[in-house]
Amino acid sequence: QVQLVESGGGLVQAGGSLRLSCAASGGIFSLYIMGWFRQAPGKEREFVAAISRGGGSTYYTDSVKGRFTISRDNAKNTVYLQMNNLKPEDTAVFYCAADLRAFSRLPGSYDYWGQGTQVTVSS
Asked: How far is 102 from 32, CA to CA, in rounded Å?
């Protein structure tokens, strides 16, 4: 059983930056593909970014390419999401998730989820 705890959310003005962290415990972190998802009010949870087990491969949804960077530190059992040039449409609850099998953009493929952290971008 893997426990995931996100942190780093908050209120920021458009154009600003935030760095989300997700600390994992209870499992072998390096075995998991890690992903970030977000869910805005009234919308479905959507894929944001993912990173391979060793960190050598990353994946992004088109709307965040060039602005967000996912990274991981397997020694610290932590995955990060650096978010720059934030826009009001990025406002959402951000979740990290762990997938034991293979990369996927589908929330249903992920085995473990954190509780989420709120990101609010004001215009």
From this structure: 9
